[in-house]
Amino acid sequence: MDAPEHSSPQNADRSAYVATLGFPLLVIIGGLVGFFGHGTVGGHSDWVNPLLGLIMFGMGLTLQPADFGLVVRRPLPVLIGVVAQYVIMPLAALLVVWVLQLPDAVAAGVILVGCAPGGTASNVVSYLARGDLALSVAMTSVSTLLAPLLTPVLTLWLAGEYMPLDGGGMALDIVKIVLVPVILGLVVRVFLPKAVARVLPVLPWVSVIAIAVVVALVVSNAHDSILDAGLSVLVAVILHNLLGMALGFGAGAATGQPLRNRRTMAIEVGMQNSGLAAGLAAQYMEPLSAIPGAIFSVWHNISGSLFAMLCRAVDRRRATTH
């Protein structure tokens, strides 16, 4: 989203920082509400899919047909990024599961997170990190549109040994709660641009509040299991995310991409649509399987913000030495 013409770059940056750093705080609050208020919150688990649909509809409203033009104009970085997304994160999940010897339910949840599309907050983080924002939007959009096919296929293939899964049902749900809302939001943006422009500033906050509620619902349903597996899940999530970011950056470097693209690929590969993963896990797996997605929703915003700060620090140092 472009800053208004009268806003300074500093104001735009400050607003983006507040949004990005506010995301994990609200999601943490959601997790605490779900954990300590599980007796009350746990009875509303049927809200998860509608809330995920609302989040994806909001993503669709932020898109324009021009956002997909990069796929035609510069297909190579988009292709590299999307392939890295659906290769690196699933394989990194397998590695984490193997190294930590996670219980079956947790292992399946970590793998599902790895097979999810890119996270919507990655676009803001790419902007903060001075990455290629157009590439970030294109990668998120393409990976999201591919999710109804690739997420259930990869999850069934890689996590099927840990528990029986309904790949067809998962694919149908992803179509209903991801693909349809995103396309509907894009259509509304095309036909009602002025009305959408008025609500664009509040969309990030609507989305993060919805994600926080999803996390609260997921945590409440897995309350009894969290204390037993909480630390191992946290370690798994941190390792998974950091591996994804490092290997995403490495994929960009290995294919000769410029620094801005490498930063974007690190963010896009490492930041997952973990709210979707948590919701699918809650529906198709055991309650404990949803915890990796819930924790990932908090952690990847924190790590993404720290990565953006590191990138800016590197840029400042280069500017002062030239």
UniProtKB/TrEMBL annotation:
**Residues spanning the signal sequence:** none
Name where it's found: Membrane
Which UniProt keywords are given for this protein, alphabetically ordered? Membrane, Transmembrane, Transmembrane helix
Pfam families registered for this protein in UniProt: SBF
Membrane-topology annotation of the record:
Multi-pass membrane protein
A Gene Ontology CC term for this entry?
membrane
* Annotated PANTHER family: P3 PROTEIN-RELATED (PTHR10361:SF28), SODIUM-BILE ACID COTRANSPORTER (PTHR10361)
Q: Know the name of this protein?
A: Predicted Na+-dependent transporter
| Source species of the chain | Corynebacterium variabile
